[in-house]
Amino acid sequence: MPNSPQHPRLHVVDLTAADGAAVIEFLEPRLREQMDSTYGTPAFKTAFALDGIVRSAASRMEYHCEALAEDDFRDSLDRLDSLHAVQDAWNMLWRAVFPWREEDGYDATRWVHVEYVEPAAAERGEELKAQVRAGIEAELQAEGGSR
In Å, what is the CA distance from 135 to each residue of 131, 132, 138, 142, 147? Predict the structure, then answer.
């Protein structure tokens, strides 16, 4: 049974290499079973490709999480590049594991799309989204009133 879909929002700064490793641990037996049972078929090739993509993303995530833990960057832009690399790798892992969301062992609390680097960015982003929504609603109301 999957975990509850209600989850705390995660940010890139909350992610660790262990999060990527958990996705690998979950997907590996499923992909291995698919590859073993369908060798040479298009299903095998699909599982093989996904396995490679997932492992590459997890490796990138591990590398950048270690760099962030060491915090030995030339400047804040290098650190931000590393944070964005973690975000990209993580969201790729999330996209790969998401189709299994209804299966036992799927961690709906942990395996979520990560939109923001850190909580302050999330606040700013959500405020901006609210402003855009309000502007669109105002435009729609103005258009509706002029007809």
Answer: 6, 5, 5, 10, 19
46 contacts 38 by C-beta, under 8 angstroms:
no
Predicted confidence band at 2 (pLDDT cuts at 50, 70, 90)? very low
Residue 79 CB contacts under 8 Å (≥ 6 apart), including other chains: 68, 71, 73
Average pLDDT over residues 100-126: 86
Asked if 26 and 130 touch (Cβ cutoff 8 Å), the reply is no
Whole-number pLDDT of residue 128: 79
Taken in order 24, 28, 30, 35, the sign of the CA dihedral is positive
How is residue 97 written in tokens?
């594991």
The number of CA neighbours under 13 Å toward the Cβ of 87 is 15
Q: Token pair for residue 146?
A: 């002029």
Span 46-75, mean pLDDT? 96
- The whole-model pTM stands at 0.79
